[in-house]
Amino acid sequence: MAPEIEFGNDVYDRLDRSRSTKVSNMTGRILNQSELDFFHSEGYLRLSGAHSKRCLTPLRERILRELSRLKVWAGGKSLGSSLNNLAPFQQIAKLSSMVKIADLDETLNTAEICNVVAGLTGRAPQSGQGTQPLLSLPHQGPWSLRRLYWHVDLAAKSGAAVPGIQVFYLIDDVIEHGGATLALARSHRVAGVAAGRLRGSLKTPGDLEAVLSASDTKIIEMSGRAGDVFLMDMRVLHTPSVNSSSRIRMMATTRFSLRASG
Ligand SMILES: O=C(O)CCC(=O)C(=O)O
User: Fold this and answer.
1) Which of 239, 245, 257 to mutate for ligand 1's pocket (most ligand atoms within 8 Å of CB)?
2) Is residue 197 part of a domain?
């Protein structure tokens, strides 16, 4: 089972697979060996309560104000915008480009998150691309694993070092089937022809259980509580999912590419 990690008061500056180095008393946390091993074998790691309610409540309010300004959502109701007619994934992309939250990156992409990324990989992350909102409106239809948009952000090469980490932040509680990102745990280890076959099978899942079992992979849903964060190796297959709940799905993401240590 995935280790659920609570943030503590110490920071690592680099990954050493046999021991970890505590470098300061800044707000942060120490990743223990089983957490590091979990990330490298499963391709993801969940951090519970990485951000506080105090910082997320004003962020949620700003997002709601922005949705109201854009005439998409106000007072707990849809304002009947044309976004409701889009396919779930087109709606997420459109909302991402429309919704502008000035301090989204500053609020979520903290020094503590950068330290965890460095701790997982032993390399200094570059995060110049900023942080992007991942929003979806409620009642997008029945939840299903069919017709999803499985993709990787960086191609898998067997045995290579982690080329980048994508961080997913829960700005609000996201219940099961509430539109959280889905990831295929362990798929970063599937490379080449097998990766192409796996992606093809996910597009038209006849017997999904058999496909997952043959590839030794497992679908995980990044649902949870506001403040939770998921770190994902960017070679992992992942997809947006259908928001069947009655709440707006409020998540955001930062991509960290990793430069070689020098
Ligand atoms: O909207 C989502 O949940 C997933 C977004 C995604 O696939 C991505 O940022 O690469």
Assistant:
1) 239
2) yes
- DSSP code for 246: S
- CA proximity to 230, closest of 202, 259, 251, 247: 251
The string of DSSP codes covering 111-126 is: HHHHHHHHHHHSS-EE
**Could you report the per-residue pLDDT of 2-27, keeping only the tens digit for each?**
554 443 322 222 233 333 333 332 34
- Angle subtended at Cα 63 by Cα 130 and Cα 72, rounded to the nearest 5 degrees: 115
Residue 160 is assigned to a structural domain of this protein: yes
Atom of ligand 1 nearest to the CA of 251: 3
Spatial neighbors of 113 by CB under 8 A, at least 6 apart, are 50, 167, 229, 254
Q: Which tens digit of pLDDT belongs to each residue from 44-69?
A: 999 999 999 999 999 999 999 999 99
Total of domains in the chain: 1
Task: Kindly list the protein residues whose Cβ atom lies closer than 6 A to any atom of ligand 1.
Answer: 92, 134, 153, 181, 238, 240, 253
What is the 87 CA–ligand 1 centroid distance (Å)? 14
What domain range is 215 assigned to?
Answer: 15-258
User: If you average pLDDT over residues 178-193, what whole number do you get?
Assistant: 92
Residue 93, domain member (yes or no): yes
Cα–Cα distance, 100 to 144 (Å, whole number): 30
Evaluate if residue 260 carries a pLDDT over 60.
no
CATH number of the domain within which 224 lies? 2.60.120.620
Per-residue tokens: 148: 């999803």
On whether residue 182 sits in a domain, the answer given is yes
Task: Give the rounded percent of residues in the chain with a pLDDT score beyond 70.
Answer: 85
